[in-house]
Structure formats: structure tokens, C-alpha cells
Prior knowledge:
By secondary structure, the chain is an alpha/beta fold. It is 43% helix and 18% strand. It has a domain at 11-152 and 174-201 and 253-258: 3-Layer(aba) Sandwich (Rossmann fold), CATH 3.40.50.150. α8 packs antiparallel against α10 (228-246). The relative contact order is 0.15. Bound molecules: S-adenosylmethionine. S-adenosylmethionine binds next to α3 and β2.
Amino acid sequence: MSTTGEEHYPQDSILFLEKMWGDGFLSPGGPEEVRRLLSGLDVAGRTIVDIGSGAGGIPILLADRYGAASVIGLDVEATMVAHARAKVERAGLQDRIEIRRVEPGPMPLPDASVDIVFSKDSIVHIPDKEALAADAFRVLKPGGWFVASDWLIFHDGEPSPGMADYIAKEDLDFGMASPARYRRALEAAGFVDISLTNRNPWYRTVAREELARLEGAGRDAFLTVLDEAALDEQVGIWRAMIVVFDSGEHCPHHFRGRKP
Ligand SMILES: C[S@@+](CC[C@H](N)C(=O)[O-])C[C@H]1O[C@@H](n2cnc3c(N)ncnc32)[C@H](O)[C@@H]1O
């Protein structure tokens, strides 16, 4: 994906991803995947931190539909933070949602201060999974949950040529790790009741439908936010992604763990 200055998600990229996945959503499945992730968890009245809160759709969903008392969205990119804050203001939810621009690294939150650490498809940008798991454990109150979706690679060896090609095409600073490494990181941090669910079978089907939209009936809609060359670049990314979905090497997962 093309970049502007230091940012991996410039405005045209945000608008493209929202056209693909819905207003305020920059990752596959939108509200339905959020529902799956939160299944069985008590969100109403809770304090939630959303790591990599993106365009703001998820913090708004957590406050508005799930009744979270307070959502702190953390993101590193200025354009993204401005985009999300504007959306939160339009939704009139500034009293319950705070979008903070942060530096990569430990969360600027006190120990044992939140009920749920949430993240959707953002931890892929954070290479040190062990430090992140330890920090999530630190900020959670006892009994709180770390619940996330992320983009994983099935092994911790060198990426296959197909995977290397896909990662290069994304050009998004991906730091992918395996399900085994995520599990070890969660265990080492102290989490219990850990589960990981492979979403490859779901997303490899959906990705084909997305490619069909990019190349076919949906193309004109995408051309309102990207020019022809940029859209063709996206088609190349989706084609490369489908290769590594089919091999199973690219394996988005849902995972969760509880702080005892
Ligand atoms: C694919 S988007 C997902 C956004 C949102 N969670 C969603 O699903 O719509 C990834 C987000 O992670 C943010 N990000 C990248 N590195 C980060 C870091 N170290 N800490 C927090 N957010 C980060 C990016 O700026 C971007 O907004």
C-alpha cells in the first residue's frame, strides 16, 4: 500500500478500507467480527482500551451498541486519530470515547485500570508480542480479558516466497508471528483460559468476494477514492493474499486470555 510521509494509513487508504469494510472499519468483517470476538463477555458499563483504534468505528460500536462506560482508543498515526476523533464527535460520544495518539510501546495507562484490552487487526504492526502481552496483563484489572483479532503467520520460520511477496506488496510494516508464539506470550504474561481460533477458513472465502468487488461490479465505487493505478495495486495485494490464504500460511486468528 502506498504511504504518505511516515504514515502507513494516509487518508486515501483509510477511505479505501472503509469502502471495503464499512464506515469506520479498517479490517475484515466489521461489526460482525467484533460481535464474535466479544461473545460471552460482559461489556456494558466496562472500561475498554482499543489498541490500534483506527478510523473509530470500533470504539463507537463498543460505546454505543455494547454500552461500554468508557473506551480509550490508542493509535500511532495523526491522520488516523484526526479521522477517528471527527467520527466520535459526529456520533456525540466524546464524553465516553477518548482517542489518544500514542508512541509505539507501553500503553500510557495505570496498572489494573481497565476491564477489557481489545484489539482488531492492529497487533500485526507491533513486533514484540511478548512485551505487548505483558503490558496488556499489567493494565487489566484482575478478572479482565485481553481479546483480539490479528493477522498471523502459521510458523516462525522464514516466510515462503509467496508470503514474502504478499508482505512486500502490503508495505505496512507487518511483524507477523505464529499462533504458537502468541500462546507462549500470553502464558508467559500470566493469562489463563487462553484460546486461539483460526479465521483462515472464513477469510479465505471472504477475500475472494472482496477481490471480485475490486475487479468487477464494485470497481467504480472504489475509483471514487483511489485512482486506477492505486486500485490496480490493491488488486495485486488481494491476489497475493489469496495465494497465502490458500496455503494456510496467512492465518488470521481470534485469541483471548483472562487475567486471574
Ligand atoms: C488495519 S488498522 C485496524 C484499525 C481498527 N482496529 C479496525 O479494525 O478497524 C491497524 C491500525 O493500527 C494502528 N497502529 C499501528 N501501529 C500501532 C501501534 N504500535 N500501537 C497502536 N496502534 C498502531 C494503525 O495506525 C491503524 O490505525
